[in-house]
Amino acid sequence: MVSVGQAGHLRWGTVQCPFCEKDHDKVIDSRTTDGGAIIRRRRECLACGKRFTTYERVEQTSRLTVVKRDGRREGFSREKLLHGVLAAVGKRTVPRPRIEAMLDAVEEDLAKSGEKEVPSLRVGETVLRHLIDVDQVAFVRFASEYHQFDHIDDLRRVIDEMAARIPESKQQGKLF
Ligand SMILES: [Zn+2]
């Protein structure tokens, strides 16, 4: 259980309100702190309307090992992904809570797979799958950085694959 002012264990879902003890809340802000180890979430209780903050320790994905293309292994780092996404977003106006929420979804997807080791390529593709809904330019930048394309055709192929996966209604027109 997550308690106010302490790092807790619960990663996703609702927590008990410290005021009325109901467990219906919504997250109104989410922010990574302490080098990616802690996620600070501002929550609003849907029962009594009071707001409180939880500090949640990333546990599930912190045990995840990422296998890089050259075979080297390193621990999963949300902070590292965050830097990559922020670099891709650049000066475009994407609200930070939107990015943090996207990383939540990425971590959840990776944790759900139940595997202890994931190839770095899969981590990147999981980010891309979510990033395309957030910002399409950032998506293209992240894709080109991540895949280190040698040729524009490689980039085009990945974009086509991604575009094919998202519903027509969500697409903001053709990417290229
Ligand atoms: Zn409450």
Order of helices and strands: EEEEEEHHEHHH
Number of strands: 7
| Helix share bin | 25-40%
Number of domains: 2
Largest sheet: 4 strands, mixed
Estimate the global geometry from the Cα principal axes: globular
Mean pLDDT across residues: 79
What is the straight-line distance between the termini?
Answer: 47 Å
Q: Strand portion, in percent? A: 15-25%
- Placed side by side, the strands forming the largest sheet appear as 1-4-3-2
Using only C-alpha atoms, the radius of gyration works out to 18 Å
What are the low-pLDDT stretches, counting only 5+ consecutive residues below 50? 1-12
Helical segment tally?
5
Name the hetero compounds present. zinc ion
SS class: alpha/beta
Write the layout of secondary structure elements.
Blueprint: E1 7-8, E2 25-33, E3 38-45, E4 51-57, E5 65-67, E6 73-75, H1 78-89, H2 96-112, E7 117-119, H3 120-134, H4 136-147, H5 152-165
Parallel strand pairs: 1-4, 5-7
Antiparallel strand pairs: 2-3, 3-4, 5-6
Helix pairs in contact: 1-2, 1-4, 2-3, 3-4
Bound molecules: zinc ion (ZN).
Could you describe the 3D structure shown?
The protein is built from five helices and seven strands; from the N terminus they run E-E-E-E-E-E-H-H-E-H-H-H. With about 180 residues, the chain is α/β, with parallel strands linked by helices. It has two domains: about 5-55, N-terminal domain of TfIIb, CATH 2.20.25; about 60-170, no CATH class. A four-stranded mixed β-sheet has the order 1-4-3-2. Helix 1 packs across helix 2, helix 2 (about 95-110) crosses helix 3 and helix 3 (about 120-135) packs antiparallel against helix 4 (about 135-145). The N and C termini lie far apart (about 45 Å). The relative contact order is 0.12. Bound molecules: zinc ion (ZN). Zinc ion (ZN) binds near residues 17, 20 and 47.
